[in-house]
Amino acid sequence: MVNPHRVFIIDKIPVAKKGPVVYWMSREQRVHDNWALLFAANKANELLVPLYIVFTLAPNFCNANTRHYDFLIKGLQQVEKEVNALGASFHLLLGEPPSTLNSFVHEVEAALLVSDFDPLQVKQAWKAELSSSIKINHIEVDAHNIVPCRFVSQKVEFAAYTLRPKLKKLLPEFLTDFPQLPTLKVKLQKQSTNVIEALHWLSPNTEVKPINWLKPGFVEGSIMLEDFIANKLNGYSSKRNDPLANGQSNLSPYLHFGHLSAQRVAVNIVKADAPVIDKEAFLDELVVRRELSDNFCFYNNDYDNPNGFHNWAKISLAEHANDEREFTYLLTEFENANTHDDLWNAAQLEMVHTGKMHGYMRMYWAKKILEWTEDVSEAMEFAIYLNDKYSLDGRDPNGYAGIAWSIGGVHDRAWGKRPVFGKIRFMNYNGCKRKFDVEGYISRANDWVADKMISHKINEILQ
Ligand SMILES: Cc1cc2nc3c(=O)[nH]c(=O)nc-3n(C[C@H](O)[C@H](O)[C@H](O)COP(=O)(O)OP(=O)(O)OC[C@H]3O[C@@H](n4cnc5c(N)ncnc54)[C@H](O)[C@@H]3O)c2cc1C
Question: Which pLDDT belongs to residue 463?
């Protein structure tokens, strides 16, 4: 049973005809622990009709490149196998999602479209365009948030402290284990999608290479989760902010691509035998901070630019707009890690060569982009461009919220005034030195640049 508060009607037609159910898998690229798929499968059984599962591959999606497509496509290949085993059929649709979906739905004479929830504007725009052409019922299921984004709050939340109590109140209702997927009553013939053809059609930018230290998919993500619980959860609260301690879970790429459900992660963490302080620290990041990001992007159309900042921050940054900058850099100088600051350069190299920058360094990295650019809009633009291009978990609400927090004080409070930053929280090199072994972190850059964590075989993506 899927909690009705996860379900949102996007399009309703007066008289529904009988026909198959189509699940448009987008953000939740998994068969297990997926409320949207559970909803679609239950509906197919209720109506005694077959279930189709489609994934739309759009050209030039948010500047994605081979690093992202490698992870995405290999994950989808696993999904396809599992979908075939269920007796549903899996289809990769190539082209602009609203038109390809519309054609597919017509072709199979579907009666119901089920989609998953995504707060980002590009996905919202696809749904709006689809609504103007599609003539069947369209239902969205929030399978990403533990407490559905539309339900927990109907407005942009000010900060974690305003969302946290709302989530806490509702968690007993929503933080449950998952039911089994039902056996499908009407089965379809196995389909084989042509992934290689899809990739040739996409011809992704190959400048940013795939990484080899994280393997995509539900199985690999589950192994990563179990390893985190067994070896890193104990001590997470003290180690997570030390870039040399390897104290984070590295689950963000799996959560971003939907290879793992955050709810599954939370359920397993709650059951784990680990100190409460560590479990609470981890759950605060995974549940409160992550779901706050979805809230920010869903209710604030300006999540990727300074118009989305709080008024105090806009005013304060404007007051300091003409402050003299000691250093300013072009985008290419940032991109090539060519600043005067070896710590910042190391963080940039970590992201470029491993596909993931440590969480603590992400804050420092973005704040220095504010300090070393001519204006705050440019700082946002540069930070988003670089994060989305090189981070495997980029193009995610967490990225937009994290950058807006660092540069624009979103979800933060006003601090003492400083040049350029105004009242935005400041971070500096010496502060980092007090927190962790800065020299040790910088010396790691040599390893990253050696590209040991990168797969040079672009063709691997085609295997
Ligand atoms: C400038 C900046 C950019 C960021 N860009 C991204 C991004 O593109 N994608 C991304 O997923 N996260 C981003 N974050 C948030 C955070 O840094 C990462 O989620 C975290 O470092 C991912 O590593 P992990 O999975 O090992 O984290 P862990 O510490 O193991 O945390 C577990 C999970 O909790 C969630 N989480 C942890 N910290 C945060 C946070 N501050 N905000 C929201 N959720 C959090 C994530 O889902 C994460 O996977 C960014 C933060 C900043 C300051």
Answer: 44
With b for 16 or more beta-carbon neighbours within 10 A and e for fewer, the 150-168 pattern comes to bbbbeebbeebeebbebbe
pTM, rounded to two decimals: 0.97
* DSSP notation for 134-195: --SEEEEE--S-SS-HHHH-SS--SSHHHHHHHHHHHHHHH--PPPPPPPPSS--------H
| Inter-residue contact 219 to 180 (CB < 8 Å) | no
CATH assignment of the domain containing 114: 3.40.50.620
Q: Is residue 34 part of a domain?
A: yes
For ligand 1, atom 19: residue with the closest CA: 252
Give the end of a domain, one of 144, 165, 197.
144
Shared-domain flag, residues 324 and 419? yes
CA distances from 339 to 368, 391, 403 (A): 10, 20, 19
How many Å lie between the centroid of ligand 1 and the Cα of residue 265? 14
What separation in Å is there between the alpha carbon of 249 and the centre of ligand 1? 10
Give the helix ranges, DSSP H, for 193-246.
195-202, 218-231, 236-239
Render pLDDT for 200-240 as a digit per residue (tens, 0 to 9). 888 888 899 999 999 999 999 999 999 999 999 999 999 99
Same domain for 249 and 333, yes or no, is no
Q: Does residue 392 share a domain with residue 339?
A: yes
Cα(293) to centroid(ligand 1), Å: 10
Q: Rounded to an integer, what distance in angstroms lies between the CA atom of residue 76 and that of residue 168?
A: 34
Identify the pLDDT of residue 460: 53
CATH of the domain at 348: 1.10.579.10
Instruction: Kindly report the protein residue whose alpha carbon is nearest to atom 49 of ligand 1.
Output: 252
CA of 401 to the centre of ligand 1 (A): 10
The mean pLDDT value of the chain amounts to: 95
pLDDT-derived band at 17 (thresholds 50, 70, 90) equals confident
pLDDT of 9 > 80? The answer is: yes
Cβ of 407 less than 6 Å from ligand 1: no
| Residue 210 counted as domain residue | no
Probe residue for ligand 1, chosen from 62, 145, 226, 252 as the CB with the greatest number of ligand atoms within 8 Å: 252
pLDDT (tens digit per residue) in 311-330: 999 999 999 999 999 999 99
What is the number of domains present in the chain? 3
Q: Residue 245 is part of a domain; what is its CATH number?
A: 1.25.40.80
pLDDT in tens, 91-141: 999 999 999 999 999 999 999 999 999 999 999 999 999 998 888 999 999
SS3 299: helix
Beta strand 21-24 with 112-116 is: parallel
